[in-house]
Every structure is written in C-alpha cells, then in structure tokens.
Amino acid sequence: MNDRNDEFHYKFELLKQEIDELQAAIRSYDALTFVIRGWATTFFSAFIVFIIDKREASFFLTCLLAITLFWLIDAVYRGLQREYINRTKKIEEFLNDSPAFNKAISTGDFGSFQVPNLAGSFKEKTRWEIVEGLVKEVRLLHNSVLYLSMFVIVAVIGMLMITGVI
Question: Structure pTM?
C-alpha cells in the first residue's frame, strides 16, 4: 500500500510540475507573438514610408507579402500555444470536481488520466490537420485584427495614390 501511495504522490507532483511548465510555455508564446507583432508593425511602417516616398507597385506587393508572412508566423505560434492551453484545460477539468479525480484520490490511482502527458498532447498530425489548424488560427478575430487593418491601410493608400490625392 505504501508503494502505491508513493506512486500517487509522485505522479501528483509531476502533475503540478506539468501545470507550471504549461503556464510558463503559454506565457512564453504570448511574449513571442508580441515580438512577432512588433516586428510586423515595424516592417509595415517602413513599407508604408517607402510606398508613399517611391510610389512603386513592387513595394505594395512586398508589403502585402510581408504582412501575410508575419500573419502566418503568428498563427503558427498561436497554434502551438493552443496545444498547451488545451492540455491545461484537460488538467483543470480533471482536477475541478471531476469524479475521476475524486476516484484517483480515494484509490491512489490516476486511472486512464496520463501523468505527465505534455508530449502526448502534441500528437502527430496529417498535413491537412496542420493546414486546418493554421487556417483556424488565422481566422480568429484576435489574431487577425492587426493584419487585416494593415491590409486595409495598404489598400487605402493605394487608392489615394491612384486617385492622385497623395
């Protein structure tokens, strides 16, 4: 009985460590996407200056390409962050008033709940699942507002240049 109790406490400690690691990774991805968005804004601003100054179509295309690439990079990292968030949710569901957790406490066995399982949350995905996840991240409003507004600003500047206003 003592070995079973030791195993339970060991796994419970691993679970707590996993929660800490998940939270650290989520914060890390927040910081990383903040940097990506900062660079996107910097490049966008520089391209706008070049577009207005040089009045060349190639700068429009390059600016649109840069915005798209930054948007995709941002979406990739947000997708990775979402995997950590999903694992955190599974742990929270297990711990918060779940019959499975109550049973684990009373029996000293986690049952089918895998501890730790950080790597297991990153299952192998088909190319289609990867593309589908990327499209989902790109379409989320909080991920797209910045980049869509950049597209709109480029379009407005293009129209103003075509009409001769600037």
Answer: 0.78
Work out the pLDDT band at 30, boundaries 50, 70, 90.
very high
User: CA–CA distance from 107 to each of 11, 39, 99 (Å)?
Assistant: 13, 52, 12
57 confidence band (pLDDT: 50, 70, 90): confident
Three-state secondary structure string covering the chain: CHHHHHHHHHHHHHHHHHHHHHHHHHHHHHHHHHHHHHHHHHHHHHHHHHHHHHCCHHHHHHHHHHHHHHHHHHHHHHHHHHHHHHHHHHHHHHHCCCHHHHHHHHHCCCCCCCCCCCHHHCCCCCHHHHHHHHHHHHHCHHHHHHHHHHHHHHHHHHHHHHCCCC
Report which residue type is found at 111: G
What's residue 159's pLDDT?
A: 86
